[in-house]
Amino acid sequence: MLVEREEVLGAARQALTATAASGGGLLIIGGLPGSGRSAVLSAVVEMAEATGTADANGRYTLRADATLAERDFPYGVMQQIVRPLLSTASDDELRRWFAGIAETIRPMFLDEQASGVPWTPSIVLPALHALMTNLAAEHPLLIAVDDLQWADQPSLRCLACLARRLAGSRVLMVATVADGYAVVEPDLVADIQRAADRTLQTVPLSVNGVQRVAEAEFGTDCELGFARGCHVATAGNPAALVTVLRGLRASGTQPVDTEAATIAAEAPGLLRERHLFYLSAQPESVRTAARALMVLGEQAVPELVAEVADLDPLDYKSALHALDRIGLLAATDPPRLIHSSLQAAVDAAMTVAERERMHRKAAMALHDAGHPAEQVADQLLWIASGHQRWETDVLRSAAATALDRGAGKQAVRYVRRALLAGPVVGPERAGLLIDLASAERGLDPVAALGHISQALPDLSSASDQASALLTVPFALAERSQSVGALLRAHVTSPDPTLSGAYHDLTLRLEARGRALDDHDPHRLAAAVARLREFDGCYPLDTAGGRELLAVLAHAAAVTASMSAQAVAALGTAVFDREPPSPTHVHTSMLKLVSAMIAADAAIPAGRWLDRVWEAARAQEAPGIRAVVNAERSAVACATGAIARAKSLALGVLDAADPAWPHATVVATTTLTRIALYTQDAELAKRLLGVEHDMTEPRVVLAHLMLRGLLDALRGDLVAALDKMTDCGDRAVRYGWTSSTVLPWRIWAAALYQRLGDIGSARALADQDYEAAQAWGAPHEIGRSLLLRGMLTGGSAGITALREAVDVLHGSGDLIELARATASLGRRLTGQGDAKAAEVSTEADRLVRECGASWVDGAEAELNGPVMRLTTGARTELTTSELNVVTLVLRGWKNQRVADSLGITRRAVEKSLTGVYRKLGVSGRSALIEQWTSIAPPGALDSDTER
What is the pLDDT of residue 917? Predict the structure, then answer.
């Protein structure tokens, strides 16, 4: 279908008419590849044949199609022009046509034996002109040549000769010339073009033209937005347009406005082969420039492209112009190939040797020009042979840079490339293995540990060995006997060769060694003694000093050997100086967050972790994000954001990875506290079902308290008390004399009271109060006073509760403040106190600020006021999640929900998991039970069967 070609066809019609009256001439049709030149030429031939049939005099039409494949065959185009007419001619016609000097070239076209005359231009050109003159004497003659730029040299000489002699003849020559292609004989083609009586261009189609072609292709109306999308994707090129339209139609796409995005996504792939064909027809300089553009990618500035392609500035500009003319360049600065699919195709067309050669040239050019190491290393990744020393240095530097920005996977690729080309043994390989472990430990800590173990035997210096040990992720160092033994040795017998120039290294080794045994009373006591040795002159200015102080502060916190205020001040000073980096998850700095929570100083830790999270969220390592989120959940719980704490911690458990045990341990401990506050049996059961290393003391204590909670909820208070006291006994054996981990004394005392043993309850409460006072953390003192108030009747109990509220106002623990205020409000209400309503209202405000509500009924209170999470009321569920919840609340099973909504059962399960996390509930039954208080307004207004 010829669209918007009326001007060209009109000019051809006039030229055909003029030819019959001896008005012959030359018409050139130019245009970009795929612009419809060949289609126009075919239409002109059909027009000529139709006119000749209607005319009693007839018309001879001769056509040839020049091709790249046949341009080395002498007179190939002329053979195409002449032979078809001669093949059906009678002997009489042949005699007339080859009369005169035309007889000389008769053997050339009829395969007759020549008389030994060579086919030189001086012989062929006059004879050929005579042949055409003889033909035109009988009928008007049309000579049509497609893709003149690819014609062989002898044929071009013949056509040029004819073109200069067409005036006054009955011969019309129409030739097409493609712009932007390599020309075999540019001078001869230019001669023919200059001889033209008229030159016309096949311009790109307009949007309306594209719309007409699309309607013809699809056989239906085409919406304007679809046409515009196709116009943008093909630049109105007819051949490209037809390729895209047929590809879209084959895939089921309809010509409607809503498919505009589909066009943009699919068109480059559909046009790839056409673009490659255009490129293959270009001179070698143009093809090389395209490869250089592909190899350099975003670094394809003119100077580098020219250098990689071995082009001088003039040739570079010419090559770039050619690529632009055939539509292979994007409208960007610096230039780019138009699409990734074309880049991939250009790459695939290169040989391995050629690819390596160009990437090495690109690497050297980038390196010499001072480009960043990562840009150079990206080129080196493609090279498998001929490795040079400078390349190793670049790859290591690039890996370090990638790791700094959180691109661990890319860093691993760089180091692996250096290892493949480097030595197989020795210190240099060991250094590369350490680099690999540094890159891997955020992605695969176990692999990192293995590579460090391989490197250690080849490291000769004490400093190199120490650095290797410090590369081991701390959580795995705790579980590796060999690494643990080496770290402990640095505590008991530090290497004297490191104490001078490597003092910071020594402090970091000591920190790791001491952190390994935070459940050994003797080692904890030694750590506290070490802290006191500093006598307030703390090594805060070095990373090693801060890490050691973090470990020692944690020892002081779990043993309550220093005041909470002193630990909080020390921890705050460390956080103020420690850069907020996600890499702290590989170190024993992890200990400081729990120490700060124990000291009722979670807020400074939270501010530091928020800055860490901003960097961690961009990390490629989910394990690192899990550890940071576990720490954030602990801080959120300690500051009263109970729903947020639960959501973060559940997310950590959902993605639990055995290679990141610290994340699971912290999340479990946090969720255990939440289960105790909310008396959530389902959450407790879920936590008990999580696979843990049961040699981890925190997990052991958490499981004891969770099982005790479940016993209490079942009414077996004796069994519950036994587990709570067992928890306390174990904590003492660990050397954890404070209640910094889990509040076992509070629960044990409350259970004694429920069992009627008030004496034991009060004795345990007094013990807890004395410990809290000695430690000095406001939240522990307030919690202990709350227990006293609950165990004591009358005015003395009210006094204790008032004191608890006053103390907790100076704490960051909003949960305990809310519980103490609620207890005071209830006690005042029972006494008929005028301020009871005011206090109770304040308690309700505080619990709402925590994202929870109070559970009504004193019988539910095993240990003071019980909370129930309600943050879902302020959380917006997606439409799909609300649809799933609506059907679940009707009692439908997951498969029925999936069938009703037309989704998979897995999709239903994923939606429910997201709902549980958003609403802070632990499962289906908790969702159903709590929905009336947490449902967004109107969520169930349209409760109709689907």
Answer: 66
For 473-476, the CB contacts below 8 A with 24+ separation are 473/441, 473/445, 473/448, 473/449, 473/585, 473/586, 474/512, 474/515, 474/586, 474/587, 474/588, 474/590, 474/662, 475/445, 475/590, 475/660, 475/661, 475/662, 476/445, 476/446, 476/448, 476/449, 476/659
Helical (H) or strand (E) element with 146: strand 141-146
Token couple for 665: 């341990």
How far is residue 753's CA from residue 549's CA, in Å, rounded to a whole number?
41
Contacts of residue 483, Cβ cutoff 8 Å, sequence gap at least 6: 449, 452, 469, 472, 476, 477
The residues, ordered by sequence, that sit 6+ positions from 211 with a Cβ below 8 Å of its Cβ are 222, 224, 227
Angstrom CA distances, 407 to 554, 584, 620, stand at 32, 16, 6
What are the tens digits of pLDDT across the range 153-166? 999 999 999 999 99
Distance CA 100, CA 681 (A): 112
Q: Which long-range contacts (CB under 8 A, 24 or more apart) does 394-401 make?
A: 394/363, 394/367, 396/432, 396/435, 397/373, 398/372, 398/373, 398/374, 399/435, 399/439, 400/435, 401/372, 401/373, 401/374
Which of 736, 668, 724 lies closest to 699, judged by CA? 668
Exposed / middle / buried, residue 111 (Cβ in 10 Å: 0-12, 13-18, 19+):
exposed
| Under 8 Å between Cβ of 118 and 103 | no
Closest residue by Cα to residue 553 from 605, 502, 506, 501: 605
CA distance 553 to 563: 11
Which pLDDT value is given to residue 157? 92
Tokens for 306, please give them.
Answer: 């020219």
DSSP assignment of 416-475 equals: HHHHHHS-SSSHHHHHHHHHHHHHHTTT-HHHHHHHHHHHGGG--SHHHHHHHHHHS-HH
Of the candidates 790, 768, 774, 671, the one whose C-alpha atom is nearest the C-alpha of residue 724 is 768
> What is the helix (H) or strand (E) element at residue 201, kind and residue range?
strand 198-201
pTM above threshold 0.70: no
Show the low-confidence residues of the chain (pLDDT under 70).
Answer: 1, 52-57, 113-117, 180, 182, 184, 739-741, 857-861, 871-879, 917-922, 926, 929-946
Are 528 and 561 in contact by the 8 Å Cβ rule? The answer is: yes
Q: Rounded to whole angstroms, how far apart are CA atoms 565 and 552?
A: 15
| Rounded-to-integer distance, Cα 446 and Cα 504, Å | 26
Identify the residue whose tokens are 């009336």. 932
The alpha carbon of residue 692 and the mean position of all alpha carbons in its chain are separated, in whole angstroms, by 31
Q: Which amino acid is at 944?
A: T
Q: Which two tokens stand for residue 243?
A: 């390729």
Residues in the chain: 946
Phi, psi of 200 (to 5 degrees): -120, 150
Q: What share of the chain is helix, strand, coil (3-state, %, to 5)?
A: 70, 5, 30
Number of other CB atoms surrounding residue 822 within 10 Å: 25
Secondary structure class of 284 (helix, strand, coil): helix
Joined tokens for residue 899: 């069938």
Q: Which amino acid is at 131?
A: L
Separate counts of helices (H) and strands (E) for the chain: 47, 7
Beta strands in 147-190 (DSSP E): 171-178
Cα separation, 328 vs 290, in Å, equals 9
What is the C-alpha to C-alpha distance for residues 114 and 109, in angstroms, rounded to an integer? 11
Q: Which helix (H) or strand (E) holds 143?
A: strand 141-146
Alpha-carbon torsion angle 111, 115, 121, 123, nearest 10? -120
Distances in Å between the alpha carbon of 496 and those of 345, 491, 533, 547? 60, 12, 19, 20
Examine residue 334 and say whether the peptide bond preceding it is cis (omega within 30 degrees of 0): yes
